[in-house]
Amino acid sequence: TQIADLTTTQIGGLTSTQLGALSTTQVGALETTDLAALTTTQIQGLTTTLLAALTTTQVSEIESTDIAALTTTQVKGLTTTQLAVLDTTQLGALTSTQLGALTSTQLSGLTTTQIADLTTTQIGGLVSTQLAGLTTTQVAELESTDLAALTATQIKGLTATQLAVLDTTQLGALTTTQVALLSTTNVRAMADTQVAAMSTTQVRAFTASQITALRTTDLGEFTETQIGALLDTQVQAFSTTNFAALADTQVAALKTTQLAAVSTAQVTALTETQVGALDTTQLQALSTTQLRAL
């Protein structure tokens, strides 16, 4: 096509309407230098069909200012292959609104390097369905600062599979508000090592429903420090099965106020070994009703 013979200056003189009237073959013939020289107004004149016709080599040469000027409709028209070639500067130029316009399929095509390069503001522009569409490999590359900035709606949108791949640094970045918003399904899906790595502040943020949802193996990974940091109401939320499964060292770590708050059913569930782990101060904290339940 003769379009390829036009100079960068000549291409730069075309109006956005003229550019929008080109065929996909003509646009595909544009030199990378021509694309790099296009103004934001000219870029906005390209239809989604024309944008989709650009080769990855052409896309990689689009200026970051032009990337930032793309409309949400144009962004939705980019292919996963095109998005995957955006470099750090180009990707960083996308606004949270533009990212929020991407489909789950488009987002799943981003490389792990690109995911790691997204800013906190950009991540904040994703809706919960978009986050839920990220692969576990992508979630594993999210910066801890990005995770800490997730909104309540976004946290609730994470799947159990996604939560299960968070490492201890990522998990440790979650705020107490975020921890309390995790669904019981997600809490139950956490690995024992993930639960054990949580700070005492995070553990204290668990709701009664979340505590009840924990598996026996999860509680078995609680350190004595974590056990002692639990609220009285959280200890009350232990199922009798989980309470009876506590290690002797964990039972010995229970505070007197925690013991005073447990139900008679929980006391009855204690094994002889567990009772033997209680010191005199702990025993004195039990009510007469609780003692009769032993």
Summary, kept brief:
This protein is mostly helical and 294 residues long. It is built from 36 helices and no strands.
Describe the structure.
This protein is 64% helix and 0% strand. The protein is rod-shaped. With 294 residues, the chain is mostly helical. The mean pLDDT is 92. It contains 36 helices and no strands.
Number of extended strands: 0
**Mean pLDDT, all residues:** 92
Q: Ends: how far apart?
A: 91 Å
Helix content: 55-70%
Unreliable segments of 5+ consecutive residues:
none
Overall body shape: rod-shaped
Count of DSSP helices?
36
Radius of gyration: 28 Å
Biggest sheet record? none
Q: Which class of secondary structure composition applies to the elements?
A: mainly alpha
Provide the β-strand percentage band.
under 5%
Q: Features of this protein?
A:
294 residues, 64% helix, rod-shaped
Sequence-ordered SSE layout with sheet pairings:
Elements: H1 8-12, H2 16-20, H3 24-28, H4 32-37, H5 40-44, H6 48-52, H7 56-59, H8 64-69, H9 72-77, H10 80-83, H11 88-93, H12 96-101, H13 104-108, H14 112-117, H15 120-124, H16 128-132, H17 136-139, H18 144-148, H19 152-157, H20 160-163, H21 168-172, H22 176-181, H23 184-189, H24 192-196, H25 200-203, H26 208-213, H27 216-220, H28 224-229, H29 232-236, H30 240-244, H31 248-252, H32 256-261, H33 264-269, H34 272-276, H35 280-284, H36 288-293
